[in-house]
Each structure stands twice: as structure tokens, then as C-alpha cells.
């Protein structure tokens, strides 16, 4: 786009797409202004839609610089291309311990094996064993009453991955997201503190899964690495 459409139009497009997030960008004098919408609301940060926007700029719109700078509701985000991967530079966020939110475990269908609860943009539920994630069958109506962006359940990876997770966000119109880059801006520091590792490999998702390579830097930033490919393209008729 060369200029912003009305917010109601952007939201309607995202609703029709019915994906976790739809990204929109316009050119600025210093790069691009980038925004993200779920099917129901505009959000502050989205990783995979940022990756998709960068892929389009590098591969379809012939962006010639090494780094793309996006102006967003979360500040300036930079994306660079390194071989077959894209490197996304995001601000790190902290997670603070909280008491067990009443009714949360029942809404998730979790019983036992829970080690604690934390709060960042989402409620974090730490469980002891990744097998707990495989059988999760949340009641999304009950989850929607918790006044956060979403709820993420995470566990040690116990093998190929340093940690695994599943993210649920009926509060923002996304029952489950297969990969949530924004959640890893606090999950990566959360697990770096526990593992003593600043570079971590993560897997997220239920029936659909994705992999993220995370680097926690000392300057308060988290770098996420991922790959992308074109699946579909066409014309949206307003």
C-alpha cells in the first residue's frame, strides 16, 4: 500500500483472511510503517507476520538494502536476511511470577505437573513435562475471560529443543497460534535464565508446529531466526 486505508477496512481484511495475524505496511522516508491485525483486534507485536512482510519486500518488491527497518507500535524492528534465514531484532520482555489465576487450570484442562505461573503480555504456565502439552484441549470460552492477550503453556524440550510451548488467545480472536514470535520475546529470556544458555532452539504448536531459533542478547533485545516461503498470492478486492 502507498497510504493507510481506514482502520475499519484493515480490520475487515484481517477478519476475512481469518489467519492469526495479517500484516500491512506502507513506505516511509526511513523504511516502512508496519501494523498487525488478528481477525478481531490490532496487536502490538507479531513475529511471523513481520517475517512475511520482510519476505515480500526482499523477494517480491526488490528491496535492495541489507536491513529493513519497520516502525511499529513496539518501536523500531529490524529484519535482515542471512543466507536462507531472516533475522528479526525485537525488544526483550520480562515475565514476573504470579499466583495461580483462579480457574485457569480447569480452562486449560491441566491437572498436576504445574511448576508455576508468570505474567508478561500473556500468562505463562510452566509444566514439568512436554507430554502435558500434547494432550491439551482447552475450553476457549473459559480461557477468554482472562484479561491478558493470551495464555501460553511451556515445558523443557527434553531433546532436540531447549523448550516447547503452545499459545492460546481467544481473547484476541485466535484460539491457537502455531508460532508466536512475540511470545518468544519473553519466553526466550525466561528459558535463558533457567538454562544458562543465550542461544535456544524452540518448538511451538499442537497439530501445526513451528521452530524458532532464539538469541538473547545483553542489550535487552531478542533475535529470532526463521525461514519463509510463498504459499499463495492474489488480489484482494475491496
Which secondary structure elements does this structure contain, and how are they paired or packed?
Blueprint: H1 7-17, E1 22-28, E2 31-37, E3 42-43, H2 47-59, E4 67-72, E5 75-82, E6 85-91, E7 96-98, H3 104-108, E8 114-119, E9 123-127, H4 131-134, H5 140-143, E10 151-156, E11 163-169, E12 174-177, H6 184-195, E13 199-205, E14 209-216, E15 221-226
Parallel strand pairs: 2-4, 9-10, 11-13
Antiparallel strand pairs: 1-2, 2-3, 4-5, 5-6, 6-15, 7-8, 8-9, 10-11, 11-12, 13-14, 14-15
Structure report:
By secondary structure, the protein is of the alpha+beta class. The protein folds into 2 domains: 7-90, Diaminopimelate Epimerase, Chain A, domain 1; 96-223, Diaminopimelate Epimerase, Chain A, domain 1, CATH 3.10.310. It is 21% helix and 37% strand. It has 6 helices and 15 strands. The protein has a 15-stranded mixed sheet that branches. A hairpin with a 2-residue loop joins strand 1 and strand 2 (31-37). The longest helix is centred in the N-terminal third of the chain and has 13 residues, at 47-59. The protein is globular. The model has no long low-confidence stretch (mean pLDDT 94). GO terms for molecular function: isomerase activity. This is PhzC-PhzF family isomerase.
Which descriptors apply to this entry?
alpha+beta; Diaminopimelate Epimerase, Chain A, domain 1; 2 domains; 6 helices
Gap between N and C termini: 13 Å
Question: Outline, from the CA principal axes?
Answer: globular
Structural class: alpha+beta
- Please state roughly what percent of the residues sit in beta strands, choosing from under 5%, 5-15%, 15-25%, 25-35%, 35-45% or over 45%: 35-45%
Predict the CATH topology of the largest domain: Diaminopimelate Epimerase, Chain A, domain 1
Give the averaged pLDDT, no decimals: 94
**β-strand number:** 15
* Total of DSSP H or I helical runs spanning 4+ residues: 6
How many domains, in number, for the residues?
A: 2
Helix content: 10-25%
CATH homologous superfamily grouping of the largest domain:
Diaminopimelate Epimerase, Chain A, domain 1
> What is Rg?
18 Å
Pfam families: PhzC-PhzF
Keywords: Isomerase
Family: Belongs to the PhzF family.
InterPro entries: Phenazine_PhzF-like
Amino acid at each position: 500500500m502507498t497510504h493507510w486505508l481506514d482502520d475499519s477496512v484493515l480490520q475487515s481484511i484481517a477478519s476475512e483472511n481469518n489467519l492469526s495475524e495479517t500484516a500491512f505496511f506502507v513506505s516511509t522516508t526511513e523504511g516502512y510503517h508496519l501494523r498487525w491485525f488478528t481477525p478481531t483486534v490490532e496487536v502490538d507485536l507479531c513475529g511471523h507476520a513481520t517475517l512475511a512482510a520482510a519476505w515480500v519486500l526482499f523477494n517480491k518488491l526488490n528491496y535492495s538494502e541489507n536491513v529493513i527497518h519497520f516502525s511499529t507500535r513496539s518501536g523500531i524492528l529490524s529484519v535482515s536476511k542471512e543466507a536462507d534465514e531472516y533475522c528479526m531484532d525485537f525488544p526483550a520482555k520480562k515475565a514476573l511470577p504470579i499466583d495461580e489465576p483462579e480457574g485457569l487450570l480447569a480452562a486449560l484442562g491441566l491437572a498436576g505437573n504445574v511448576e508455576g505461573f508468570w505474567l508478561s503480555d500473556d500468562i505463562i504456565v510452566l509444566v514439568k513435562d512436554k507430554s502435558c502439552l500434547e494432550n491439551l484441549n482447552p475450553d476457549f470460552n473459559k480461557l477468554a475471560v482472562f484479561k491478558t492477550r493470551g495464555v501460553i503453556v511451556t515445558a523443557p524440550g527434553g531433546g532436540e529443543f531447549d523448550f516447547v510451548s503452545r499459545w492460546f488467545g481467544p481473547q484476541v480472536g485466535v484460539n491457537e497460534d502455531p508460532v508466536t514470535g512475540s511470545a518468544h520475546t519473553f519466553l526466550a529470556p525466561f528459558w535463558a535464565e533457567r538454562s544458562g544458555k543465550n542461544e535456544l532452539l524452540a518448538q511451538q504448536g499442537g497439530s501445526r508446529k513451528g521452530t524458532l531459533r532464539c538469541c538473547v542478547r545483553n542489550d535487552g533485545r531478542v533475535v529470532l531466526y526463521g525461514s519463509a516461503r510463498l504459499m499463495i498470492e492474489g488480489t484482494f478486492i475491496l
